[in-house]
Amino acid sequence: KQEVTQIPAALSVPEGENLVLNCSFTDSAIYNLQWFRQDPGKGLTSLLLIQSSQREQTSGRLNASLDKSSGRSTLYIAASQPGDSATYLCAFWVNQAGTALIFGKGTTLSVSS
Amino acid sequence: EPEVTQTPSHQVTQMGQEVILRCVPISNHLYFYWYRQILGQKVEFLVSFYNNEISEKSEIFDDQFSVERPDGSNFTLKIRSTKLEDSAMYFCASSVIEGGELFFGEGSRLTVL
Question: How many angstroms separate the CA atoms of B23 and B63, rounded?
Answer without folding.
Answer: 20
